[in-house]
Amino acid sequence: MDDISSDLALGTVTFKGYQSCSCNAVNFDFSELAVTNPGYTVTGFSNNVILANNPSPLTLCTNSLQEKLLFIKNENTGDVRGGLFSFTDPKNIVLTDTDFPTAGVAVDTAQHAQTNEYVIISASTSELLSREQSRYARFSDTPLYIFPDIVEQSYITSYLEQTSSQAGISVTIASFATNTIDDTGTYNTLSHIQGYYELAAAFAEFGNSFNDASQSVTYDFGDTDQRINEVTVALRWQDQFNGSVSWAIRGKTQANIAADLSFGNYLNENTAQLSNPSLSVTLAAHQFNGDFATLQRLRTEPLSSNEVRDLLAQSAFLNITANQ
Known about the structure:
Blueprint: E1 25-29, H1 31-36, E2 41-43, E3 49-50, E4 58-61, E5 67-73, E6 80-86, E7 92-94, E8 102-103, E9 105-107, E10 117-123, E11 128-135, E12 144-146, E13 153-166, E14 169-181, H2 196-208, E15 217-220, E16 230-239, E17 243-251, E18 254-257, E19 275-285, H3 292-299, H4 306-313, E20 315-323
Parallel strand pairs: 1-7
Antiparallel strand pairs: 1-4, 2-3, 2-5, 5-6, 6-8, 9-12, 10-11, 10-13, 13-14, 14-20, 15-18, 16-17, 16-19, 19-20
């Protein structure tokens, strides 16, 4: 926030890691696995593959991947086994039972049954390997799995959401908390961002500051939760002249945003007519004790960075969004 408070010209902005839209395709053939393991499902794609249905080959774009974690599961016998698949060669992979040699370890989520959703993230030293999701399920009956023998680290994210409406305004509060999972499938109690009363008061004060165009827009979420070390503010709306507009700014827990906002050539402010406006604030509590500038530098590092992995290991986010 301080970097642009004096109309600093940021110059040319370059996006890191740009990739074309071409697809580096790898084909997975389930025909042999469907014969030997008809009572199994294959997990690791966008949807589970049910082998009893004699599935057709599946194509996966692997532009940014070197390896992929897949696992097979039999609900009746409880047999769960995983395997890592390299995407360097070949381009056609015929899956067999022997491709899944590593037993899975169930993650116990029954003690947190009030949570709407859990997501398991598995990562190697170089990249994300899989993302398994269990949404609105009875977690004691639908366990998630990790594979510590072949995956360096796994994380679990707990997700909570509640929505309320008043005077034509819909307000949604979504909370996330991430912890590392040990090799036995256990993890510490997920600690979500606290202070809903303080959050509601700070959000209302922030929203009211938009009403006076002559004054700076201000926010102060420092009293919500002492762990918070980053705030992102986003304003979105539909505009028949400018299309879908999204403006966001990231700063410390307390900041003043200049009253005279200029959007340059990206937005014709003279013709702007807000429709379906949305105002959101995301509070982040990263496991990080350094200064804000260093935190922002770490956010640009790849997942393979040890510092970034430590940042993700114990983190919590809370988003509050108001829609008209």
